């Protein structure tokens, strides 16, 4: 089904791997089509509770593979807009997913590849990882979402430093800035550990909490949404099992089908 992407759903975790290691997992149009399809599959699969996004063989994603791209300045604007919309839709889908997503970044995350990592709910980085919004270095703007995402993650002033200079965000800085939750020798294993920790919690509560964290909403909007989401949780069997397990001093047992 996939050529440029590996997709594996197992025990509640969907692992999506960008698999073009010969070009540091840089993407072509086919890659973007497959990434969108894989994320959609994970979002729609009732047996998937968390999503891990990573890249093959030590890289995350080095951005667009320029050797596979047409000369866009010789094409119609509408054609370029359609292509860019597809790239943006990877970010759009990750942000819209109720199921928590974790980026496991072992190496370069550059350009739109950086934005794919930023679009995830959390990031784990390896010692050789770095994030680079390097668009200005080649005379472009962060058209895939980075100029919107990065200020919300690390603050406007710090974000502009990286956006306007194209400097790398190294692993230590990523953790210090709150961009990454952890630095680990094996970021994919650490991301799966975090995903499994989330799997041990009531899924509706995890997903509704993920939906509720929205920096664009006002407080009253938050409160209105919280009423609806809390009602979902109150009526969720996993909530009742979690409370019973707490009262009985035991681990909860959730009735789930991961197939």
SSE topology sketch:
Elements: E1 5-10, E2 13-18, H1 29-44, E3 50-55, H2 77-96, E4 101-105, E5 108-110, H3 112-119, E6 122-125, E7 130-132, H4 146-154, H5 156-165, E8 168-169, H6 171-176, E9 182-183, H7 187-199, H8 203-212, H9 219-234, H10 237-247
Parallel strand pairs: 2-3, 3-4, 4-6, 5-7, 6-9
Antiparallel strand pairs: 1-2, 7-8
Helix pairs in contact: 1-2, 2-3, 3-4, 4-5, 8-9
Strand residues, percent: 5-15%
Helicity level: 40-55%
Largest sheet: 6 strands, mixed
Distance between the termini: 18 Å
What's the number of domains?
2
The ordered H/E elements are: EEHEHEEHEEHHEHEHHHH
The CATH architecture of the largest domain can be given as Alpha-Beta Complex
Note the overall shape. globular
Oligomer state equals single chain
Strand order of the largest sheet: 1-2-3-4-6-9
Structural class: alpha/beta
Q: For the record, what CATH class of the largest domain applies?
A: Alpha Beta
By CATH, the superfamily of the largest domain comes out as 2-enoyl-CoA Hydratase, Chain A, domain 1
Cα-based radius of gyration, to the nearest Å: 19 Å
What is the arithmetic mean of pLDDT?
Answer: 96
Question: How many extended strands?
Answer: 9
Unreliable stretches: none
**Number of alpha- plus pi-helical segments:** 10
CATH topology category name of the largest domain: 2-enoyl-CoA Hydratase, Chain A, domain 1
